[in-house]
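Need fresh eyes. Consider my entry:
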Amino acid sequence: MGDLLGRVLVVDDDEVIRQLIAVNLTLEGFQVETAYDGQDCLDRVLDVMPDVITLDVMMPRLDGWMTATRLRGDEETKHIKVVLITARAQEDDKRRGLGIGVDAYLTKPFDPSELIRVVRDLALAAHSG
């Protein structure tokens, strides 16, 4: 178990995308848990205690923006690395993400190898500091 690269919580309301991300990260050596929207993420985050959360922006109940804001506003979760994944990559979106304090930003459709690289880098950063 000690050789795992880290734990990732994959949050996306689209089951196909959620599974795609989960499979890619699992094959890479991460322990992966999934959540189907932002509220599900917040309900489970303290149980999972991930190193990295990949967070879709457009979701029902609680979107990625609000979820990231709440994660950052909580002492117990503010250290977790957050990757926002969105179909909208306008500059103001990126500024908004940086303002919340997300760690990385990926645009759909994303290249799985890019996602893996970003998550790996953040997981390493999480473990080193």
Observations:
- The chain is about 50% helix and 20% strand.
- Strands lie at 7-11, 31-35, 52-56, 81-86, 104-107.
